[in-house]
Predict the 3D structure of the following.
Amino acid sequence: MRKNIVAGNWKMNKTLQEGVALAKELKDALSGVKANCEVIVAPPFIHLASVADAVKGSVVKVAAQNCSDKESGAYTGEVSPAMVVSTGASYVILGHSERRSYYGETNAVVKAKVDAAIGNGLNPIVCVGEVLEERENGKFFDVVSAQVKESLFHLDASAFGKVVIAYEPVWAIGTGKTATAEQAQEMHAFIRNLIAEKYGSEVAENTSILYGGSCKPSNAKELFANKDVDGGLIGGASLKAADFMGIITAF
Ligand code: PEP
């Protein structure tokens, strides 16, 4: 059966020392709690090894926020999937809307990164989601369908089994505007149906699909109660241990 997951995307926040302190605070907070979901934190690249060390012995897993599609070589400023693995991280967020809009990542780029990540043993958390205009003009199913198909549907079923999908309506990210539970459930069911059509219902039932976009302790329970919402990818509310714990314990 698929996993419930709560993953925190720290984005470009926290110095190394602040990040390690947050990771330790989270580890301590979780030590007295039975989490009913997998917990992941995604700090900036340069924090990965230290954060992985800080959460050792806890249930917390570590993710990178991005990685290169290349294995090694003259790619100044890039970080390869093998380098990410060598820090102790086991997940990587790919195709986040900020990567798509600020750094020009297309579905083809995300596809290449997915292959590199899986080839190196990382589990990709692949983000999809429509912008406000696409929500308003009714194109949102087409946009998300293209993102899922073009970045993931070249995988065979076994490789696809490593993938987590995060549905993040761009208009809800960092805006305080959350999708309603109905909007989230509708899109998650749509994505699960696409997966079932391509890989069969068993693979679809085993795929974790997370919601992201202004998820916080006050709305997590309502979002996670939906049958196709298997947790959340959390931005702002993952930067304070108490808020993140409020979301983790929503399961
Ligand atoms: C995100 O960027 O993945 C995200 C969901 O951000 P926020 O929770 O701040 O909306």
About this structure: The first strand starts at residue 5 and ends at 9. Residues 217 and 246 are 5 Å apart (CA to CA). The mean pLDDT is 97. Strands lie at 5-9, 38-42, 60-64, 91-94, 123-128, 164-167, 209-212, 231-234.
